[in-house]
Amino acid sequence: MKEEFTFGIYPLSVAGTPFGVAAGPEDDYHKIRFALNDLQGDNRLLTPRVYLIYTPEWEEKMFSLGDRYLEAGLVADLVVGVGDWTQSEQLSLEMDRWIGFIRKVIARYGASLSSLQITNEPNLSFMEGSKPYIVQALAEGVMAAKKEIRNLNLSIEVGFGSVPDGPAAVSQFWSELAELGGDAFIRSVDFVGYNFYVDVFEDKPLDLKEIPAVTEQLLRSLRENNLKTAGIPASVPIRVTENGWPTGKNPIANVERSYERQSEVLELVIRTTHGLREELNITKYVLFGLRDADSSKEDLFHQYGILRDDYTPKPAYATFQKLVAELDASISGSRGLPR
Questions:
Q1: Do the beta carbons of residue 78 and residue 116 sit within 8 Å?
Q2: For 230-242, how does the pLDDT look when each residue is reduced to its tens digit (9 = 90+)?
Q3: 48 SS3 class
Q4: Distance separating alpha carbons of residues 129 and 196, to the nearest angstrom
Q5: Distance CA 131, CA 112 (A)
Q6: What angle do CA 204, 16, 132 make, to 5 degrees?
Q7: Using an 8 Å Cβ cutoff, are 238 and 221 in contact?
Q8: Cα-based angle 296, 27, 98 (whole degrees, multiple of 5)
Q9: Average pLDDT score over the chain
Q10: Worst-scoring range by mean pLDDT, 22-26, 185-189, 305-309?
Q11: At CB < 8 A and 24+ separation, what contacts does 92-97 make?
Q12: Following DSSP, what letter does each residue of 165-183 receive, concatenated?
């Protein structure tokens, strides 16, 4: 039976960038909960998606963050990334410690998890893809997670992340994954996550009429090219795990990015994705994200939210709320955001 199409959202404010992180005022968990319940509405499932990043030095800090997310009711779809992409000299990984971290995550948070994604952007050359161990860490991490979940008799879907092909992508990623992964790996994959951003990093803005075609091309490329190269069958669902359109200013094109345009682009991308759900087996759309990191800073990395940093709404908030109510096929009572 095919999965229904559902929605998720990144509920926090900090955003990763090629240069480190974009941050601002602290997250207000009470306001986060109010906004997520408001967006979710009645009889819908809106799952929060949060991140932990493993390095040996960060392990204790990551569990402290995870415990805070759990207490706030934000642990449902969890991403476990690996490696500090800002440290170019970090070229090796102790696989036993990496696998041990994944097992600890499952033991600690498994009862609350609906999905566990191993790696976020492993084929992005200046992020996780900059690490020579990333494909091995992905494959062994996915298989270890699935084995641990089965041993503990938990109901958690396991997947991995990816980004579109392009100048910044790792060129041989999918063929290397096919070579290293094998049948045991493919049997362990319940979904493939896909982070893409339409009309965000281009040199000049796209015409609104171009947005659906670009969105479709990106989704088809993953299904019809990349996943085939990796040997991952069409029965494995795609999840759009990060997509958004920040306001502010594009530092490359020096173009102002309006609140109204954010609303228009998000609606076009979401409706296009939903329209392809059956043909391309797409089961989820996750918005990045709920709140700006810092609305006073004009660069786009600080303004991804559909809320400002004081939790007041931009027009896209109402647009996303409308689309969740119209397009989400979930039934209340599934594991997700507690009401």
A1: yes
A2: 999 999 999 999 9
A3: strand
A4: 15
A5: 30
A6: 100
A7: no
A8: 115
A9: 93
A10: 22-26
A11: 92/132, 92/133, 93/131, 93/133, 93/137, 94/56, 95/133, 95/136, 95/137, 95/140, 97/56
A12: -STTB-TTHHHHHHHHHHH
Nearest to 243 by CA among 177, 308, 193: 193
Question: Do 309 and 291 meet the contact criterion of CB atoms below 8 Å apart?
Answer: yes
Q: Are 308 and 292 in contact (CB under 8 A)?
A: yes
Instruction: Give the integer Cα–Cα distance in Å for 288 and 13.
Output: 10
CB 286 within 8 Å of CB 48 = no
For residue 186, the cross-strand partners are none
AA identity, residue 163: V
Q: What is the pLDDT of residues 199-218, one digit of tens each?
A: 998 888 899 999 999 999 99
For residue 2 the two structure tokens come to 């095919």
| Tokens (6 digits) for 171 | 């060129």
- How do residues 57-72 score in pLDDT, each as one tens digit? 999 999 999 999 999 9
Nearest to 20 by CA among 309, 270, 293, 260: 293
Q: Give the DSSP per-residue string, 104-120.
A: HHHHHHGGG-SEEEE-S
Task: Tell me the residue type at 61.
Answer: K
Tokens of 310: 């004081």
Rounded to whole angstroms, the Cα distance separating 26 from 18 reads 21
What are the structural domains, with CATH classification, of the chain? 7-327 (3.20.20.80)
173 Cα distance to chain centroid: 19
Positions of E strands within 109-237: 115-118, 157-160, 191-195
**Closest by Cα among 172, 269, 299, 296 to 226:** 172
